[in-house]
Amino acid sequence: MSATTFSRLRTLADPDHFPALSPEYIRSQPSLGLGPLDPAPRILLLYGSLRERSFSRLVVEETARLLRLFGCETRIFDPSDLPLPDLIADDDHPAVEELRQHSLWSEGHVWCSPERHGQITGIMKAQIDHLPLAYKGLRPTQGRTLAVMQVSAGSQSFNSVNTLRILGRWMRMITIPNQSSVAKAYAEFDEAGRMLPSSYYDRIVDVAEELVRFTVLTRGHADQLVDRYSERKERSETVAQAERGSNVAAILGSIDGLDASPAPRLTPAPSG
Predict the structure, then answer these.
(1) Rounded Cα distance, 96 and 123, in Å
(2) pLDDT values of the chain reduced to their tens digit, one per residue, 272 residues
(3) Hey, what domains does the chain have and what are their CATH numbers?
(4) CA–CA dist 7, 94 (Å, integer)
(5) Which of 34, 72, 109, 125 pairs with 41 at a CA distance of 20 to 30 A?
């Protein structure tokens, strides 16, 4: 599927307008020196509400603007016609296919869910459930970075971000330490849907900076970081004999050297 056939990507309004940002404190390249910056880091953003004024979507849009400012390429997936998992045989639906293609394209994700009845929403979970660990011989999530966020109608809570962290670990993603939880989200945006200056917005900036850093830091190493003995064994994918032999020999040699070395003698301390 080529980029020209994608029909479920949201257009980001005012991508270069930052009314809540203090530019004098911004590092335009927060990941400088951590790894190659070219090509631009590719980030997929998912939100968990279909309301016309969805605060999880508004948070995702603010995050996407910041990621673009920091040199990333972003895609925001619109889940409005995504079917429930297992509703359609073999997940044969264009929205499911497109979501998986976006994830395969990405190097990192942002997940933002409302908290509903103390948990993430069904819309959020359905998107994650449509991302299998393995898909056509590829892994749509494994080794990718992840930032988790939530919005609440009441006081600040962390139930949704905690659940998203569990899901990120299950999906074998590298979830960054920082996170965002916006309380009373209805009071944090203006009529145009732009976030007001606040400590909540500042935390979103922090999360975006950190996601870029971890994505650049781990790019090029993601496959190695999630390379597993059990999976190589399951695939009957043997390691090259020379590599295996040299590594084992080095390890055994160091162990033999330790075993062969005489035990240290305890010399009595001089008296008086």
Answers:
(1) 13
(2) 444 579 999 999 999 999 999 999 999 999 999 999 999 999 999 999 999 999 999 999 999 999 999 999 999 999 999 999 999 998 899 999 999 999 999 999 999 999 999 999 999 999 999 998 877 767 889 999 999 999 999 989 999 999 999 999 999 999 999 999 999 999 999 999 999 999 999 999 999 999 999 999 999 887 788 888 888 888 788 887 436 544 654 555 555 555 444 444 444 555 54
(3) 3-225 (3.40.50.360), 234-258 (no CATH)
(4) 10
(5) 125
Angle at 158 between CA 132 and CA 139, to 5 degrees: 15
User: What secondary structure letter does DSSP report for 43?
Assistant: E
Strand ranges for 152-249 from DSSP E: 174-182
Distance CA 10, CA 14 (A): 13
Q: What is the pTM of this model?
A: 0.84
| Three-state DSSP state, 230 | helix
Looking up tokens 């009529």 gives: 191
How many angstroms separate the CA atoms of 171 and 142, rounded?
6
> What is the Cα–Cα distance from 44 to 144, expressed in whole angstroms?
10
Straight-line distance from the first to the last Cα atom of the chain, in angstroms, rounded to the nearest whole number:
84
Q: Smallest Cα–Cα separation from 106: which of 3, 226, 12?
A: 3
d(CA 59, CA 112): 8
As a residue count, the chain comes to: 272
